[in-house]
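Researcher: First entry.
Model:
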Amino acid sequence: MKSRLILIAGLVIAARAQAVPVTGVIVNALSGSPMKRVRIILGASQPRSAPSFIVTADDGRFSFDVPPGKYSLAAEYAGVRQAYGLAGPGLGFGVSIITGADQNPGPLTFRW
């Protein structure tokens, strides 16, 4: 039993060591000011897990710790959703976020 706990603890530590931060700020594209109370959604390219989301505070910042992989990023504000990397809502598919040992995508600036 004790060896199983040690093994599990080791796996948890290893998983955290492989996590890559996806950080950034969402700003108004016209004024450049940070946007508060925006829902930021991070989705994995593999459908095995549900998307994660957070709501930004007054500074417009967001942060996720994720395993290496390919992700989509979107924002929802006032009932409208916009993908990261687009000039406005509904104008395409957005830009993928790729994380890995040699690929740290942040900090990102999400222009709304």
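Researcher: Second entry.
Model:
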Amino acid sequence: IARLFANDQERSIWRKKSLDPAYARWIAPLSSIALPEFVNAENDDGFAINGSGYLDMPLLLDTIQADLKQSNALIETEFDYAEIDVQEKHVAWRDRSASFAIFCEGHLATSNPWFSFAPYKPAKGVIGKITTDIQFPDTAFIKKHFLIPRHDQSISVGATYNWDQQDDSPDKEGITELETFLTKTLGDSWQWVSTDAGVRPATAGAKPIIGPHPRDSRILSFNGFGSKGSTQTPFFAQALHDFLWKDAELPAGVLPSRFLKKQVAEPKRWIAVEIARDRTLERIKTGDTVIDATAGNGHDTLWLAQKVGPTGTAYAFDIQKKAIEKTRTRLEKANCSEQAILIHDSHANLAGQIPSTVQANAIVFNLGYLPGGDRTVVTQTESTIAALDQSLAILKPGGILSVVLYPGHHGGNDETAAVLKWSRQLDPEIFDVETVNHPAGIEESPFPLFVVKR
């Protein structure tokens, strides 16, 4: 694989990974492999990955299905969860019984009543095949999107991410995105053979969900394998087999219970800003650099400044002079003004106000209006999105971006929708995104969104 960097975040992440012995054995200079003619080993920034291959998913699924049919182990029928009857020593379904019921549902797991607590994030992707006059050696090309020379002499191209649609039809926007990539990479020397689409059963944390339900041990999940995770199915199939029949342990990081524990730990009283504060504090320590992009009355700035201490730095932005003054007073009363830098400016100018050498461990946004202030002065969608984009560039790997959204106030619904749309467009290879909604499903309740840079 010729792996080229699409942006600075990728470059930073992979340079760090290249120092890890587990990765280093696979990584080599671009010049060490045969390259497509449009890749220049001297000028293009990236590396080679040795010993790679690709998994033909449609062929794999067709082969498994044919094998199950041949061994009379497949029943093709409409399925209703209500027909599953979990007993003490077995699970019954219609006229059959078994020791366990294992659900392998892909993105349809979002409707599974036993695993409704699992935070699936289904992502539709458009993929296609092209032909081209450009010669490809036995080398795949990746620069955000991929080009893979196949055994049938076609080239696979993909893939897009669409969190708003969950069907198998290629969407117009996805096709256009791939066509733009193809034209930029290959010029006009290509043409479509076919386009297709599928939905990845992506999960928070990008790990599959494997193992027993926390309360019904005879109900199990074997699911959540995304586009890359599908290559791990043999490993985890063996692991699940050994768990069931040899009393082996499954890795804690893939157990369904890892999500249920998080929900149990949520505070009984739903206050979005407190959830955001507690989650952010877990990611920062004394001496760190943090940013409060919406100082307001200074509450967030204070706990950020207290956490990083005198050896750290807490930047705070607000476009209202009154907010800056209140924040300064609050910091001075708590003897925390030494480590704080207050900036009377819009957070849309964040990158210009923060030194270019600074990287932040945490960046906090508490959107809406200034409590106790003029409610007609609210954060604006355009400036918020600009500030969020700049924040990602400043955020350290492992750092957290916390945004408390307020869909209930004037303009809040539009801003909330825009921020959620922005978050769905982030590269899942670089960022983990999570929203924590009100447990009672109150749509107008404030709620936090978290973005963690891997």
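Model: Note on the second entry: The chain is about 30% helix and 25% strand.
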